[in-house]
Batch of 2 targets.
Target 1
Amino acid sequence: MNQHTPITIPSHLLPGDGRFGSGPSRVEPLFVNDLAESGSGFLGTSHRKAGVRNVVRSIQDGISALYELPDGYEVMLGVGGATAFWDAAAFGLVANRAAHFVCGEFSEKFAAVTSGAPHLDDPVIISAPYGSAPDPRDVMDVDVACYIHNETSTGVKAPFGRNGDALVLVDGTSGAGAIPFDVSTIDAYYFSPQKAFGSDGGLWLSMMSPAAIERIETIATSKRWIPPFLSLSVALDNSRKNQTYNTPALGTLFLLERQISSGLANGGLDVLAQRSLDSSQHLYDWAGSRPFTTPFVSSPPLRSPTVVTIDLDESVPARDVIGVLEANGIVDIGGYRKLGRNQLRIATFPNIPTSDVEALTACIDFAVEAL
Ligand SMILES: *Cc1c(COP(=O)(O)O)cnc(C)c1O
């Protein structure tokens, strides 16, 4: 791109909101207004008192309702995001050995945690090349099977399934609140709320089956040393009181509560999921119809409805396209940095209306033409 002649995209082509990042992702401005309007009634009050605890309870009840959780399942939460949950799971859910189904940065990071844990046997790691996903299969002698629902780094929606008696742990960070699944197939479905759930960071939440809760309680009474901050049994006690072990970000709780209650009021998970399906379909169709684009994920069933990765032809450097868009207020559509491809990665989470995604492709077309 010639630095001296900035390309201006005509305003009628621009999306209503320029945020298309995969996380932190677009937060609904109305909810931010609600937070501002809560004035002295929420931020700056104790997380041990009713005002905040009622918000936590509403989040827990809302997730239960959104996913129609069976009896005995509980919604737990703690501070530190999905990354902290990996550490907590290595202490509190893996008895001896885990299996990891790995297909990108995030699933790899969890595998690295149990690989390094001195109190665990080496995990079994089943990996697939980036852009695809391993098929679920039974692995012998493991007590936990770790899957990812949606690999945010590559835009792959991965399958998961039961593995004998092993607990099934699924990272739902970029799928939660956007991709329905059969809850009876999981024991722990955990996520950070700043991606598909369009809130802010710093928290982890997890839907836990009775078997997962039993495992947490069994390990907690064993001799294993568990740092209190990473103790799932401590988190369980606090979650049952609509609290966290240490201080959470209250703004995150507020935004998540608004996101969940508005999702429920507007038709629930199926409606949220449909918006992502429509937006992602538009992008895959668009990428299939332009000479300079190819969907990175070649197998259609593995293509994510919430994070769309599109390779660009060498003649169209992603850096230049991204530069034009950024100069026009459209942000965070670069590919995952460690993938290092000539690629765009576009979030199609439910908070992003399909009309904005349509505007985005019009803007990309305009930028490519102008370059
Ligand atoms: C972003 C992400 C994480 C890490 O979330 P943090 O809140 O940064 O800990 C884990 N898993 C997936 C799938 C993610 O997209």
Note: The longest helix spans residues 269-289.
Target 2
Amino acid sequence: MRLVGERVARPERYVEVKKMEFEDSSLYHYAIFSDSVIAVSVVVNSAAKNAEEPWKHVFHVVTDRMNLAAMQVWFTMRPPYGGAHVEIRALDAFEFLNPFSNDKNRNSKYLSMLDHLRFYLPEMYPKLNKMVLLDDDVVVQKDLTGLWRIELDGKVNGAVEICFGSFHRLGHYLNFSHPLIKERFNTKACAWAYGVNVFDLDAWRRDKCTDHYHYWHNMNENENKTLWKLGTLPPGLITFYSTTKPLDKSWHVLGLGYNPSISMDEINSGAVIHYNGNMKPWLDIALNQFRPFWTKYVDYEMEFVQMCNFGL
Ligand SMILES: *[C@@H]1O[C@H](CO)[C@@H](O)[C@H](O)[C@H]1NC(C)=O
Ligand SMILES: *[C@@H]1O[C@H](CO)[C@@H](O)[C@H](O)[C@H]1NC(C)=O
């Protein structure tokens, strides 16, 4: 609320400017979809601070209408480190999404739309060829430009795989008792994770992945949600089935929001660490031993943050 008050007091400072960098495909582009100012600020701050050439990195943030003003004020008062660029837009700015957000269930639909934006990257950023999608509960610990040099071999999605033994295979996420799933997918195929994904947007357009997503989304609705239940991972596993290239695991270390036994070595050598799970680093229930990797990037000079006082 304090952040919004600042914008109301000085509206002239918060006119949206479209910078050339936002569409310059020679730069490194990231998508972050979130309704949390503090979470986004940590992602951007950590990525910029650990970049060798921060001014070449562009962060495309999309938030809901409620949080737009707060995000704009935050990044105007505390511009990203080293000349990195931030574009902040509201969900409403993407008109082609309106048919999906006009339901009677407006509020919950609207929120889940923020999650579903990840299936529209090429439509949202028509000028870009490649993007890295970062979840808002990650911390970047290394320069990420290497992600852009990875050869995806014509695949659409570069992601870290999460299966081991019989765990985290497609059978865990999709309903293989359903004939539509059974006849199209392999129950033993390895699942991958969202959090750090390299998307080749040209390959995505070529393979019409957005259409695949719509097809399966509608199918699941028609089948009374029996193909999969909740979340974005199951439809992601379907949409990018056989078009995902596994990345080296050090790019994306998972589980800091639920698994106390991740080794410090693994965390320290991770390019990105991910607090997936319920124990988010900004909550009281966070795993204490993992919290400092996140708080390190919280901007305590902002009086607004000091008032929030993250269990420190
Ligand atoms: C869909 O699921 C709901 C709740 O699980 C159930 O009440 C309803 O009968 C189902 N409809 C069809 C067409 O199967
Ligand atoms: C999986 O699909 C089968 C066949 O349509 C259905 O009977 C079953 O209820 C589904 N399971 C879940 C958990 O939706």
Note: Residues 151-192+205-246 form one domain.
